[in-house]
Amino acid sequence: MKAVIANEFGLPDTLQIKETPSPIPAADEVLINVKACGVNFPDVLIIQNKYQFKPTLPFSPGGEVSGEVAAIGEKIKHLKVGDRVVALCGWGGFAEQVVTKANRVFPMPPRMDFINGAGTLYTYGTSYHALKDRAQLKSGETLLVLGAAGGVGLAAVELGKVMGATVIAAASSSDKLVACKEKGADFTINYSIEDLRARIKEITSDKGVDVVYDPIGGPLAEAALRSIAWKGRYLVVGFASGNIPSFPANLPLLKGCSIVGVFWGSFAEREPKQSLQNFGELLGWINAGKLKQHIHKIYSLEEGPKALRDLMDRKVMGKAIIKVGNWTEAPPKPVPPSPKESIEPEKAAGLPTVIKLSEIKKYIGQSLGVSNWLTLTQEMINDFANATGDHQWIHVDVEKAKTLMPDGKTIAHGYLTMSLAAKFFFDMLVIEGSTTSINYGLNKARFPLAVKVGSRIRMHGSILNVEDMPGGGVKLFMECKMELEGEEKPAYIGELITALY
Ligand SMILES: NC(=O)c1ccc[n+]([C@@H]2O[C@H](COP(=O)([O-])OP(=O)(O)OC[C@H]3O[C@@H](n4cnc5c(N)ncnc54)[C@H](OP(=O)(O)O)[C@@H]3O)[C@@H](O)[C@H]2O)c1
Asked: Which ligand 1 atom lies nearest to the CA of residue 173?
């Protein structure tokens, strides 16, 4: 395969385009045919051996890719060859193929294309975590974004607006500030020619800003901290300027403010549930057209070193993307309505749909799409038998099933299949504004097909009805249809009733 290779640590012009052997996935890894690779600041640092992760030479830069699964290790159950995916591989993405751990690979949302897929997780993931989890930015507050036309900066501008803040975008040129205005910035500051502190005073009528988003460090950092409002939050996101600032400790004392660190990669590893919830919320906004990545330029694989050089030279606005190979992509198909008696053909699973509890009635009659696949193992069947005391041989006696069942396999309890509806429900749907959800009941259950051990199963869901409940909650009626891989008929159809408060 072709790849951009670092044989030594150095600047982008030391990189070479080379033929190199395809990587082979280990048991817990996935091999991806790369379609596109996002260019991010850590790529510039990693080739110079200045990043916290230090791959051994030779290696390819490129930490964020979109593509198709080419091969999977023997332990991988939730992905298959041909799946469209996005992945945070760390490095190796400036290449025709990359191998990475399966827990860093995610199904690509159905309506996302490869170019946008390669440039979404890192920028929006970082900036949303920073603003939501670290700064706890509130609607009506004022947000200052430094380096506002860069990758994470422009994402912070868009997210700040979506979250209801007044956004002040600060960058080094008027072209960059035009891009920030297009993404909704309320005010702009050109810090190459304007005094940052004086302009912030003027814009905020001396009050200062509630949140500073700083991905660049350097001399602007202290000026920004001195411009923060009482109880403000200063987000330390990165040091693109190459200079790590130091602050006099009297500043946070006098301002009653916090200096808050942001390390999105570590957050995603340590708090995977919260990170997935964030992605679900982001996807909801992307699908609703509220967030749209600004693609600066699409480079070929051969132009990979130039893309890195442009990023270092502060020429890139939003995202630079490497397109690997000469492919074209059909526009995404509209999502078909859920048929009543059969399972629709392949529809790639995505991240959860995000719905506000207060707006849930708007979704009555709408499909929620499809969950990820799950493989039903004998261990799960045995655990269910132990929990319920139902040890019929057809479920648990593997040896007897080998001789007596037509295809030699045990089958899962019907109620086990049915009980998975709740798990799939939480995979598919994030309800904002809900603090409690109670599985209230199941209606009209039917089991058209038996589920054999080892089958892959997933759920299609749609909202049938929403009824008000006493105490301000709602009763959600969701149609659940369990699909078995390779089968036209569903394994189970029923209505899941969930009380939400
Ligand atoms: N903490 C985390 O979890 C996390 C996650 C992602 C990224 N980061 C960090 O955030 C920073 C920005 O990443 P990015 O991918 O958004 O990079 P980017 O697209 O290159 O944006 C960086 C911006 O910084 C400004 N800048 C100022 N001095 C610079 C210099 N000497 N060289 C390059 N840019 C300079 C530029 O804007 P102007 O020309 O307008 O000044 C540029 O647009 C990096 O330090 C990265 O490591 C941190």
From this structure: 40
- For residue range 247-277, what is the model confidence (pLDDT) as tens digits? 999 999 999 999 999 999 999 989 988 888 8
Residue nearest to atom 4 of ligand 1 (CA): 237
> Is the confidence at residue 288, as pLDDT, over 60?
yes
Q: Report strand pairing: 295-300 vs 319-323.
A: parallel
Residues 335-375 have pLDDT tens digits of 444 444 444 433 445 556 778 888 888 788 777 878 888 89
For residue 358, what are the contacts with CB-CB under 8 A and spacing of at least 6?
A: 433
298 DSSP β-pair partners:
321
> What percentage of the chain exceeds 70 in pLDDT?
96
Instruction: Label residue 105 exposed, middle or buried (CB < 10 Å: 0-12, 13-18, 19+).
Output: buried
Condensed to tens digits (0 to 9), the pLDDT of residues 87-118 reads 999 999 999 999 999 989 988 887 789 999 99
Residue 171 has pLDDT above 80, yes or no: yes
For the chain, domains (ranges, CATH) are 2-120+293-323 (3.90.180.10), 134-266 (3.40.50.720), 353-500 (3.10.129.10)
For ligand 1, the distance from its centroid to the CA atom of residue 42, given in whole angstroms, is 9
Q: Which of 88, 314, 319 to mutate to test the pocket of ligand 1 (most atoms within 8 A of CB)?
A: 314
CA distance readout (Å), 55 to 321, 342, 348, 402, 407: 22, 49, 33, 48, 48
Instruction: Show the tokens assigned to 195.
Output: 């005094």
Ligand 1 and 135: CB distance under 6 A: no
- Separation between Cα atoms, residue 463 and residue 340, nearest integer Å: 13
Beta 319-323 vs 29-39: how paired, if at all?
A: antiparallel
Residue type, 229: A
Both tokens assigned to 460: 């299609």
pLDDT at residue 333, rounded to an integer: 53
Pocket probe for ligand 1: among 64, 121, 196, 216, the residue whose CB has the most ligand atoms within 8 Å is 216
Q: Which of 164, 162, 259, 159 is nearest to 212 (CA)?
A: 259
Q: Please, what is the average pLDDT of the chain?
A: 91
Q: Which two tokens stand for residue 31?
A: 């091999």
